Give the backbone structure.
Amino acid sequence: MSGALPVLYSFRRCPYAMRARLALAMSGEPYELREVVLRDKPAELLAASPKGTVPVLVLPGGEVIEESLDVMLWALRRKDPEGWLSPPKGALDDMLALVAGNDGEFKRSLDRYKYPHRYPEESAGDAQAFALSHRAQGAARLARLDGMLDEGWLFGARASLADMALLPFVRQFAHTDAAWFAAQPWPKLQAWLAGFEAGARFQAVMEKHAPWQPGKRPGPMLL
């Protein structure tokens, strides 16, 4: 049975993998989930995608989709029951442009805010000041997102691909210093994130699974 299903290599807490799982869950496309340990990546993952990052979706015919946004688009183009690709306002290209800014400028700031000690060549020996400067850069983008949420979602009155592609990263930023985030003047953004985290779909894709091991029984089959 597992050979007939797409196989998703994933890591539960990775925001890129979260967005892929969210889109697969929305589409209802069945797949085998293989939870991996990033410090001990299975050879099968590296054979499919030598870059060794998640998510990686391996289709039954052997095609490999190794970028999270491409996994989202693949799943939603097969089935999109809530219209994530067709928002009430704007178009797919508008959403993709917003996602590109998240995956570029915002992700760069997020990494340096959350993990400043990984960048000693950039921090000039002051990791705290370095982190706070990147928090400020990320905050400027979050303030702009707050201004887009007048109807509850980024592109109108219902969720879209853009919301689900960005929310895992906003969540990571928020949890870096939850008290600081809660004190910011972003009520719409805070409500958007809180609603997402409380939602059944997010809870479902964040279920814990044991790491996949080659030669043992297949990972969970998800619909």
